[in-house]
Amino acid sequence: MKVKCKYCDSLIDDTYTNCPNCGAALDTVQRFANKQPQTIEELQKWYMAMKLPPAEVTRFFIGKDIKEPRAFGIYKDTDGDFVVYKNKSDGSRAVRYHGSDETYAVNEIYQRLKEEIVNQKSHNADRRMQQARESERVYQSRQTKTRKKRRRSGPFTIVFVIVMVNMVSSVLIAAFSSSYRNTASVPKPAAGYYSYDGADYYYQGNDWYYYDEVGDDWGHTVEEKIPEAVANDIEGQYRIDSEGHEGLPFEDTFWYHEPSTSTYNDYDSDYDSYDNDSYDWDDDYGWDSNDSWDSYDSDWDSDW
Q: How would residue 82 be classed by pLDDT, with cut points 50, 70 and 90?
């Protein structure tokens, strides 16, 4: 897009921070807030600090050139330029930006990601409202039926129902408590490197990561895509030390963080280090763990 320099009236690309003709600062640069991410690495940290779901869920791939349909992304190509793209549902790609201005490129995907967070939060609010209305409708229907039944029933029936409800509740509570204890006590693999069937993995904070030999980089993945033998390796059969992995050390990636507690199994505690780690992030777009992200609610047919 072309913009006009207000000092020399030249029409120039809006990717410049200063007019190439007279050197004046461009007003377009002022739209970038001081507290927002300026680089791909900062955007990755912002993403983690907001505790957003994995990229495979949100379909926002930061620092990766994904070819699959239904994907937003930003990456640096082999020429050193930054590319911001959107893959539509039919697999076609719309390039939002391709140029050398990293700050501009990051802002484009950052604004789109914030817009999508608002969209997902709105859908979650609508779903909760619908569920509340349906629950209220069912409750009122049951209350009406109960009142009619009470008018036809005698005192003995009422006492019998109360006794039965109490008995069933006690059984359910006991069963739930037992189930919770069993679930809460399920052991997890220890944090660190794992090697299985020629592939390397890393586990921390209840999250799994895989090593991409082609890109010499680590990526986040969901547990369902981790080999079952590794995901359940509580004995450490496939666990290796850092020297056993010959590629990029996981500790050198932006994914890695020092745990703030003695265990890696406390997700909230482990990721606290991202919240204010030398950045004053705006947390208005933080993700609620009780919400669900459905990427099919996104607009995949438009160019952006």
A: very high
Residue 18 has what DSSP assignment? Answer: B
| Structure confidence by residue, pLDDT tens digits, 137-158 | 776 777 776 666 666 655 656 6
| Every domain of the chain and the residues it spans | 1-31, 34-170+294-304, 192-285
Cβ neighbors of 147 (< 8 A, separation 6 or more) are none
- What would the 3-class secondary structure string for 26-39 be? CHHHHHCCCCCCCC
Rounded to whole angstroms, the Cα distance separating 63 from 81 reads: 12
Q: How far apart are CA 22 and CA 241, in angstroms?
A: 57
Distance between CA atoms of residues 33 and 43, nearest Å: 13
Q: How far is CA 286 from CA 38, 49, 51, 72, 259, in A?
A: 19, 8, 6, 19, 20
